[in-house]
Amino acid sequence: MTAADRVYQIIRQRILNGQYPAGSYVREAAIGQELELSRTPIREALRRLVSDGWVEAIPHHGAQVVSWTQRDVEEVFELRVLLEPQVARRAASRIERNQLDQLESLAVRMEDLCRDEGENALEEIAVLNDDYHARLMAAAGSPRLQRLLETIVQVPVSRRSFHHYTRDELAGSMQHHRELLRALDAGDGDWAASVMRSHLLAARAAQLRFAACVEETGAGVASTPRA
Amino acid sequence: MTAADRVYQIIRQRILNGQYPAGSYVREAAIGQELELSRTPIREALRRLVSDGWVEAIPHHGAQVVSWTQRDVEEVFELRVLLEPQVARRAASRIERNQLDQLESLAVRMEDLCRDEGENALEEIAVLNDDYHARLMAAAGSPRLQRLLETIVQVPVSRRSFHHYTRDELAGSMQHHRELLRALDAGDGDWAASVMRSHLLAARAAQLRFAACVEETGAGVASTPRA
DNA sequence: CAAATTATAATTGTATGCAATTCGACTCGA
DNA sequence: TCGAGTCGAATTGCATACAATTATAATTTG
């Protein structure tokens, strides 16, 4: 792994946890001094971040961390509703027994956490949920579909959507995971795609409700909140 | 426009017309000497080409021009069939009168060229067709959807698909353009999406037939043919 | 003679210095 | 007082030099 790769991950992480707030500029020289590297690998990392949509390059003026408007969030959901059911559909006709077992194991652990009501259970569920989707993606066997989704589903929005769920919605989400397993096991692509679609539309509804809420209270939604 | 931007376009053009064949390596130093630039802007252009999927970065060994297998072509069609109907659907509820008129003008010119049977009429139609799709994309008003499609619909495959059409298929394609205009004018998203889907599935069928043909004759399909 | 090994050359990865460009503040004039 | 123009500081864009890594090929050894 090259220095530029490390810098890429470091900067992305800092954008994620709000250390670099939306709208702020990421300076090559500053990071270079801090990490004791020259500007060259920093530049390369920033260019990758630009093409991955994390920052915006203003010619001769720097790399600006992107701001997310509600409209952006909606646009991403619209694309996910198109693409992710296709992931499920493909997986239904390709998934292997052991992959199915792994997914089931993840689903069980999420359900357990859901019942526990532990302190940071939501965060743990979110991690497992990411793993679940990643393994499903792998089973679908379409590198381009994977790349597209990785490009648009940037964690700051998707991950946090879990926190807006009511208890019922969370239970419903767990139910979706289970039903998807049955659809996959049956090799029924239509069924699997439909379940995934419901899964996403439910997430979108929760997100929309949250957006309406912050609209009233006047809390910002554009900027990535700090950790 | 920076030097890196120019280099990006130059290299991409050379990949397109076969000057840099699939599987070959693009050397930073060689291009730098030829264009009388240092390796720095060349590197930057190559990194962009990597993230746009034109070349593959082999660590410490260089940038290799990607090879397209039949499976890749099918994967791209699968994604287009998902995404482009959504472009039509969005455009149906957003398009303005003058945009519709421009699309119609393009459709008419394509139909004329189709009747002419001129020598390089196919090439001209392909150019107009690209314009048609670009304007439709603009009318859809979704930058992310646009970016996704630009990423996957790399011209070497899509543009050439026109050349595999029979006369009937070409006429049918023109008919799709017309019908799409009616659907857009009616503001009927379902209709527009359905027409676009047919449009793409027809293109896919022609591509598949062509692939089967070269399979028999043993002609290569993986490498980008020379101009 | 074959296989492992080492040396070499070629290529990318990184550091540093300078040039070009842009944005902001300050000054000058109306 | 307001506006236009100009100067300067800051930042990116590019060139060059050097270091690190890897593939290749010659070489040596069993």
From TrEMBL, chains A, B:
Cited Pfam families: FCD, GntR
Q: Name one GO molecular function term.
A: DNA binding
Question: InterPro entries recorded for this chain?
Answer: GntR_C, TF_FadR/GntR_C, Tscrpt_reg_HTH_GntR, WH-like_DNA-bd_sf, WH_DNA-bd_sf
Q: What is the name of the protein in this document? A: GntR family transcriptional regulator
Tell me which SUPFAM superfamilies the record gives: GntR ligand-binding domain-like, Winged helix' DNA-binding domain
The entry's keywords: DNA-binding, Transcription, Transcription regulation
Pinpoint the HTH gntR-type domain residues.
1-68
Q: Native species of this protein?
A: Billgrantia montanilacus
